[in-house]
Amino acid sequence: MQLNNLRDVLEHEIEDLYSAETQLIEALPKMAEQAYSSDLKAGFEEHLLQTENQAVRLEEIAAELDVELPGATCKAMEGLIKEASELLKLDSSPAGDAALIASAQRIEHYEIAAYGSSVRFAKTLEMTEVADQLNETLKEEEDTDKKLTKIAEEEVNEKAV
C-alpha cells in the first residue's frame, strides 16, 4: 500500500471502514441474541439495520472514488469484535449487558474516530458529496453511542448492581 497523498489516505480509510462495518454486520446479531435487556436487544437489532445501510453507503462512496472493495481486513475492528465475542460465552445477565454495552461503545468510539477523520479528509479534498455521506454515518454512530449510554444509565447498570 502506498499513501502518497490525502486521497490515498481517504481511500484507505474507506476500505478500512467497509471492512469494519462488514465485520460488525456479522457480530451484531450475536450481541443481540446475548442481550438480557429487551431494550439492548432492540438497540443492537436497530443498529444492525443501520450498519447494513452504512456498508451500502461505503460501497457507493467506493464506486465514486474507484476504490475496489473489499480491501484489507480492519485489524482494529477484528480485535474489538474478538474481545466482544468473549462476552458471548457468558450467561445472559444484567452484568453481562453492562459489559456488552462497554464493548459496543468501544466499537462505536473507534467508528466515530475513523468516520470523523474521513469526513475531514473528504472536506479538505473538496469532495462535498463524499463528506456529506460520511458525515451522515458519523452522526448515526454518535447517536448509537448516546443510545447505549441511555440504556446503561436508565436500566442496565442499576440492575447489574
N-to-C order of helices and strands: HHHHH
The number of helical runs is 5
- Number of separate strands: 0
| CATH secondary-structure class | Mainly Alpha
Largest sheet: none
Poorly predicted runs: none
CATH architecture verdict: Up-down Bundle
Q: Give the helix proportion (percent range).
A: over 70%
Q: What's the overall geometry? A: elongated
Instruction: Supply Rg.
Output: 16 Å
- The overall average pLDDT, rounded, is 93
Question: What is the subunit arrangement here?
Answer: single chain
Terminus-to-terminus distance: 48 Å
The secondary structure category is: mainly alpha
Question: How many separate structural domains?
Answer: 1
Beta-strand share of residues: under 5%
Quick tags:
161 residues, mainly alpha, Ferritin, 5 helices, 83% helix, elongated
Task: Quickly describe the structure.
By secondary structure, the chain is mainly alpha-helical. The chain is 83% helix and 0% strand. The relative contact order is 0.16.
Fold topology:
Layout lengths: L5 H29 L3 H28 L9 H13 L6 H31 L3 H33 L1
Helix pairs in contact: 1-2, 1-3, 1-4, 2-5, 3-4, 4-5
How would you characterize this protein structure?
There is one protein chain. Helix 1 packs antiparallel against helix 2 (38-65), helix 2 packs antiparallel against helix 5 and helix 3 runs antiparallel to helix 4. The protein has a single domain (6-153), classed as Up-down Bundle (Ferritin), CATH 1.20.1260. The relative contact order is 0.16. It has 161 residues and is mainly α. It has five helices and no strands. The protein has helices at 6-34, 38-65, 75-87, 94-124, 128-160. The mean pLDDT is 93.
